Amino acid sequence: GLRDGESIDLAIDPQSGERELEVPLHGLSQALRGVVKNALDVSGTDPVRLEAHCSGSRLRLDVRDRGAGMAPEVLARAGEPFFTTKDPGGGMGLGLFLARSVTERLGGTLQLESQIGHGTTARIELPLVE
After folding, report:
1. Where would you tag: which of 18, 60, 84, 95 has the fewest CB atoms within 10 A of its CB?
2. Angle in degrees, CA 49, 95, 85, rounded to 5
3. Rg of the Cα trace of the chain?
4. 115 forms bridges with which residues in the sheet?
5. Could you give the strand order of the β-sheet that contains 48-55, starting from the edge strand earlier in sequence?
6. Is 128 exposed, middle or buried (0-12, 13-18, 19+ CB in 10 A)?
7. Rounded CA gap, 51 and 93, in Å?
């Protein structure tokens, strides 16, 4: 459901397919789509990398872009409702907020790492079925 789907470099750890994740498909896909869309918006012609692998009892999804990165003061506010760095009309500032809300309701986390000139990584971790 994303434009520029060909701009996504997907890497799934083969062992991840052996594990089970029990989440509402629509909610998780909507949260992940919001994070990937943000990454595509800042990446220009560079692909966005989406990696999935299991670590212990958690599934980790990393969305990495090669955008300009965020300054510490912007990173500190990213995910606040209605905070956006996009031009007027480009977004409402709810994508990361909603993605974090959904992820946390599923027992997971959403963390952002960013550095000016080196892009941003959004890391979603979710509990796997034991």
Report:
1. 18
2. 85
3. 14
4. 119
5. 8-12, 48-55, 58-64, 119-127, 109-115
6. middle
7. 25
Q: Note whether 6 and 46 are within 8 A (CB).
A: no
Residue environment code for 110-123, b if the CB has 16+ CB neighbours within 10 A, otherwise e: bebebeeeebbbbb
pTM here is 0.90
Determine the Cα–Cα distance for residues 65 and 69; give it in Å rounded to an integer. Answer: 8
Dump pLDDT digits (tens) for 75-105: 999 999 999 888 888 888 899 999 999 999 9
Q: Using CA atoms, how far apart are residues 95 and 79, in angstroms rounded to an integer? A: 8
Looking at residue 103, its amino acid is T
Terminal-to-terminal C-alpha distance of the chain: 30
